[in-house]
Specification:
Rossmann fold; 3 domains; five-stranded parallel sheet; 5 strands; 53% helix; 8% strand; ATP-binding protein
């Protein structure tokens, strides 16, 4: 491991965050079999979502319980399975309007790659192999060089592109913008200078002047009223382009209850209720989506805070609450508590396994005994035992290897 990567990962752990380097993240992961991300992969991403279904999940837990860790591993599994992935924090993106979510998702998408994938589909449906074209050569010019008449070829290409416009699952304006980009790439109908960028920006939800859109026959803009229809169009298009769908994760949802550096709430009451209403609509509208898996993660205050949490907005709470509660974690639940999962598998033995993985990954010294781990795991705290164990191991290394009987007194346990 490169020293820079090692130090960056260690600094993340010292701050209570998982390392962003996926190789490091996997190397220090314990409880792979029990992990919620593996369950979501097997029962949703590789099954229900892959077949065109959609789902919204909420993940809660104490600070340091592994929520972000689980999200990052889930997204890695999703990429491996052929999904477009998206990750953000509620501290970085406003959630009170759905068009903000749409814009953030599309910002993370390479529209040019989607256009290329759909153009390959069109070329294949016309009886040609996309791999026959030379790099940077458009299909229209190449086919003419093979003896195809320009007029009949242009008509056939347009008929294939019109199938997208006639698809009832795709908004007409969305299809109009996307098919023009496809026609430009195929070479059958060229766009004027700057128009390609205008169409791409419109698809990403940017506000553009009407005079720029009128020559392109687009007379609407993407806003909070039609963003869901545009998202549904995008999701359907992903599957037409050979992708399995979208896997999106929004972390730090508990920012809805937090205050900024100046002491002011990051989200006022009205803005928070707008977020909850947006989430409520997302849950209700998901029947019309195709191949989408959304996970919103935050601290348990979202459940326990009756004045500002989920329970403060009854329309959302009624849809996501677990009607049957028990001491065992129900991994199929739409509202999943990570802390219940930790109670099942995170023992002193798991701590020793975690210590060994951290030692092997970072070259840390050993010195924390099993009885010390019992002290950490069993002690009630505002923090998850996972966070306390990781901090203890890393801090013990930073302090030069204090050991044994000194350990519990130094960590306050």
């Amino acid at each position: 491991m490169e020293p820079a990567v090692r130090e960056e990962a260690l600094e993340s752990l010292r701050c209570g965050n998982p390392p962003l380097d996926l190789q490091v993240l996997k190397a220090i992961t314990v409880g792979e079999r029990e992990g919620i991300w593996n369950f979501w992969r097997d029962h949703y991403l590789d099954d229900y979502i892959a077949c065109g279904g959609s789902k919204v999940k909420f993940l809660t837990g104490k600070p340091g319980s592994g929520k972000t860790h689980a999200l990052l591993l889930m997204l890695e599994e999703a990429r491996r399975l052929g999904y477009v992935t998206f990750f953000t924090s509620a501290r970085r993106m406003r959630l009170n309007k759905f068009d903000s979510i749409y814009q953030a998702v599309l910002d993370a998408v390479d529209v040019e790659n989607l256009v290329a994938a759909y153009c390959d589909h069109v070329i294949g449906s016309l009886g040609y192999q996309p791999g026959q074209l030379a790099p940077e050569q458009d299909f229209f010019s190449w086919a003419q060089a093979q003896g195809r008449a320009a007029d009949s070829l242009r008509r056939e290409i347009q008929e294939k592109l019109d199938e997208l416009y006639q698809d009832r699952k795709i908004n007409h304006s969305f299809a109009m913008a996307f098919t023009q980009l496809c026609a430009h790439r195929l070479g059958s109908r060229r766009l004027a200078d700057g128009q390609k960028e205008i169409l791409q920006e419109w698809l990403k939800g940017r506000s553009l002047p009407a005079r720029a859109l009128k020559p392109l026959k687009i007379f609407t803009r993407i806003d909070k009223y039609n963003a869901r229809h545009m998202m549904a169009s995008f999701l359907h298009l992903l599957r037409l382009c050979g992708r399995r769908g979208l896997c999106a994760a929004v972390d730090d949802l508990s920012a809805l209850l937090e205050r900024g550096p100046e002491g002011r709430m990051l989200y006022g009451r009205s803005a928070r209720n707008e977020v909850y209403e947006s989430l409520r609509q997302l849950v209700d509208d998901f029947a019309g989506f195709e191949g989408a898996f959304f996970v919103f993660a935050g601290r348990t205050e979202l459940i326990h805070d009756e004045k500002g949490g989920f329970k403060s907005y009854e329309a959302l709470w009624m849809r996501i609450q677990n009607e049957v509660a028990g001491s065992r974690p129900n991994k199929f639940a739409d509202l999943f508590n990570q802390d219940l999962l930790l109670k099942e598998f995170f023992t002193a033995g798991t701590c020793l396994e975690l210590q060994q993985k951290l030692n092997e990954t970072f070259g840390l010294g050993s010195g924390i005994r099993q009885e010390d781990f019992h002290c950490l795991v069993e002690n009630v705290s505002m923090l998850s035992p996972v966070r306390r164990v990781v901090e203890a191991i890393v801090n013990q290394y930073d302090a030069g290897g204090e050991r044994d009987g000194e350990f519990c007194s130094q960590t306050g346990h």
